[in-house]
Amino acid sequence: MSAVTHDIPEEAGRESFWRRNLHFFLLAPGVAWMVLFLIVPLVMMVYVSFWTQTTFAINSTLTTKSWAAFFGSETYYGALIRTLRLWLTVLVLTFLAGYPTALFIGRFVRNKTLQTVLLVTCVIPFWTSFLIRVLAWRPMLGKEGAINIVLEKLGLISGPIEVLLFTELSVIIGMVQIYVVFMVGPIAFMLARIDDSLIEAARDLGATPLTIFRKIIFPLSLPGVVVGAIFVSVMVLGEFATASALSGRKVNLLGNIIVTQVGSLKWAFAAVAGVVLTAVMAVVITGLLRLVNLQREL
Amino acid sequence: MMEIRGLNKSFGGNIAVRDFSLEIEDDEYLTLLGPSGSGKSTLLRLIAGLERPDTGAIVLDGKTVTGTPPHLRGLGFVQQKYGLFPHMSVFDNVAFGLRYRQIDPVSDQRTVNDRVERMLELVGLEEFGDRMVGEISGGQRQRVSLARTLICEPRICLLDEPLGALDANLRERMTVELRRIRSALGVTFMHVTGNEAEALAMGDRMIVLDAGRAIQVDTPHDIFSRPANVQVARFLNAYNILSGSGQGGAFETAGARLAMPPGVSGAVHYVFRFDNVAICDPDSRGQSGSAQMEAEFIASEFLGSRVVYFFRRPDGGVIEAEKHLSAVDPRGMRQGEKRILRWPVENVLLYGKGGGMLRHEPVLEVAQ
Amino acid sequence: MHHLVGLRWLLGLYTALFIAFLYGPFAVMAILSFQQGPEGGPQFPIREWSTFWYQHVMGLAPPSRIAPLPIAEALTRSLSLAFATMVVSTVLGTLTAQAFRTRFKGSGVVFYLVVLGMMVPGVLLGLGMALVADQLGIDRSWWGTAFVLHVVYTYPFAFLVMLAIFNRFDRSVEEAAWSLGVPPARTFRKVTFPMIFPGVLSAMLFALTLSYDEFPRTLFTAGSDVTMPIAIYGTFAVEIHPNLFAFGILTTLFSFAVLTVYGILMGLSTRRARARFSDMQEDIA
């Protein structure tokens, strides 16, 4: 026993070294990983956007030529406008399509198991590869696709609707179907968390269902809407596969520009498009984060 | 023996423990009474090593352990919420410390078995070793938590409101049990509670804590009969406390002049026990050696072995009078009836501006 | 409440339509995966029902002009990559979440640095990493440049899951173990970890799924050895065939099996935990 008590001060010194620096040891691996593989590549992209592009290579002579070329060409800044338009359309549509479902699952289904089952049902299509899900829209929307066949069988149309595939509309339909679940999940989660007694109290005070929705339910579900909007925005703004698969390469987004430029080894130019996309992204995300404190909502 | 010297701890500007010093003897039952927010849990956590003090030192058997992490202190800590390991059986919960502690772990399975079984027997759970902790009752969990701590033979066992989560019945039984287990093992217990009856009944010594400061350390008997401070008197929930000023042998309080012990000046609190108050008819004559006040009956509360009567003073405050059933005055009172309340002047305690007690000779020769 | 019954039905009907919308393409895909082959294309009408494309995916169909999907190599790569990503991001996520259990200076910066990993579009990171690799003269490979980006993507998810788990974790259990003389590292192994294990499992599942299907980050960084999503993307440029649909159905069935096993495991562990916790909660309350 005497040996043990003798050990304590030394032991304490070693322990407190670990304890004092515990945060450092816990955080260092993750932070280092993110700095090396997230921050460095992004900074590199910004840097390279000012490099000089020759036909098949780049060199580190600084120039703004790629930037001038980007904003000087309708093809390229047109892609920026198109990306923004498509993003906004998809964002609004996923919200409009997703909210009623989330409301049903979160507020009208009282049974926890059934809630989970419904949410899992919404998630199951995600177990198929993203790219295959995109391709599955082709036989759905095509001239001889399922929708046209069904509508013709029902006698609602005489000839096939051709606008369904290989247009901006098909890209929008595809994206809404693919991303709407990211809206439903967070909103349903927030709605299910609302305390029933709050709503009962409001009802006892004579509030109409519409007032209850406007003053209580919707504001309390707002963090879910924001989180969903962040998910949808991140994914839609970085999109290129859905656009190229469902538009027959007619709809070019910023993502498509990056992919084609990299394909032809135009690194500097791809980097410019990347920086523009990053800037758009940063504005959108910070704007959304203004509305809700993500760290506190967990 | 543990010595605590000048402990201070604050959280973001809120002082939780203020200049706290104490010597803890071996083999004693120490209770610590404080209202919620008085810093009593923080104090325990500081001693256990779960918080670090801002200043001050904790010395255990002559060695400073202020910076030592909890697992090297050799102290036990029984939490209010028990903190049992939900994924283990009762047996494994109790054996946990023995098996996995850093200092002197017991690896021999037979020794572990023996010691756990002996400990389970001591706390009366010998039948429950195989149960999961979710399958036993609250009182049993309390015992598991205690057994788990005591099996490690801590120098001092810290108990944070150990009876707080139990219902009244269990509480009473555990009060007896705790004292029995402690004296069987000879371990020092430091028992924190917000309940004055518990603190008085269980401690060999008792500490009263207010706003992070120890305001009285004494035997329960001395604390109860002579609270050092008006704040202590308030926590004991056994004293009427009137505010005013004492001058020339009488205490002026709103609406009344009360007789008070002589030879004291500067009193601002006039304090006497509930059970010193006699309830007399409004027309009865004053007695020498008694102070008196007219008051209006409000209500009474029947507490089993005793009754507490509530009266309204002329200034609107409340005076409580407590009678044991064996001595109760059977006449019924109706709400709003006037009575004269009398109490012996010699038992009145007086406190000065700072809240400290103003000493006066126990009065035998009656004043004036 | 009466007038809400109508609304309830309306919303229920809407939800049914919504789910039909989600599953529509899926159903079409399932039907077309039974298209006759090798001439039948990925469109209606069905010429003749057959399981040709399933055989094609498995490599059992007679050789034809349609190249088989490089399942053996690409799928192995994807699964190995997903597995490695799962392990690394769960460990990183758990470590970081553990650090967030006590307040520290700069926690906001670290939080957003980590969360940024899931907020930056994949194509940007892929591009940036390709540029860095190019300048440093590092060969791009699925187990190197692509792997680190997969972790950048999945680690924030694992971190958030673990953060939510730790927020609901009762500290007093750990403090009890320390007070019994058990050192913090051993306490984590013996007490904390077994208790948070269901959460760790969710974090792992999250990371596995995300990494397995990851595609924009991988596109520029995987080099010449492709992963499964890249192999599928490769067919975009050329003609697509119903073998992709058959493959989609097969992977979905496989995922279902994994999900079922996971669900059963979770169900068992929560039922056990519930049995242990339930009366404890009642008593404390």
Globular, elongated, flat, extended or rod-shaped: what is the shape of chain A? globular
User: Fraction of residues of chain B in helices?
Assistant: 10-25%
> What name goes with the CATH superfamily of the largest domain in chain A?
MetI-like
By CATH, the topology of the largest domain in chain A is MetI-like fold
- Most extensive chain-chain interface: A-C, 81 and 89 residues
Task: Describe the main β-sheet of chain B briefly.
Answer: 6 strands, mixed
**Structural domain tally of chain B:** 2
Helix fraction of chain A? over 70%
What CATH architecture label of the largest domain in chain A applies?
Orthogonal Bundle
Distance between the termini of chain A: 47 Å
The Cα radius of gyration of chain A reads 26 Å
Low-confidence stretches of chain B: 363-368
Q: Any key phrases for this structure?
A:
heterotrimer; A: 298 residues; mainly alpha; 2 domains; 15 helices; globular; B: 368 residues; alpha+beta; 5-stranded antiparallel β-sheet; 23% helix; elongated
What would you say this structure looks like, in words?
The complex is a heterotrimer of chains A (298), B (368) and C (285). Chain A has 298 residues and is an all-alpha fold. Chain A contains 15 helices and two strands. Chain A folds into two domains: 48 residues, no CATH class; 233 residues, MetI-like fold. Helix content of chain A is 77%, strand content 1%. In chain A, strands 1-2 form a two-stranded antiparallel sheet. In chain A, strand 1 and strand 2 form a beta hairpin. In chain A, helix 10 runs antiparallel to helix 11. Chain A starts with a helix and ends with a helix. Chain B is an alpha+beta fold. Chain B folds into two domains: 224 residues, Rossmann fold, CATH 3.40.50; 112 residues, Beta Barrel (OB fold (Dihydrolipoamide Acetyltransferase, E2P)), CATH 2.40.50.140. Helices cover 23% and strands 33% of the residues of chain B. In chain B, helix 2 packs across helix 3, helix 2 runs parallel beside helix 4 and helix 3 packs across helix 4. Chain C is mostly helical and 285 residues long. Chain C folds into two domains: 57 residues, no CATH class; 170 residues, MetI-like fold. In chain C, helix 3 packs antiparallel against helix 8 and helix 7 packs antiparallel against helix 8. Chain C is globular.
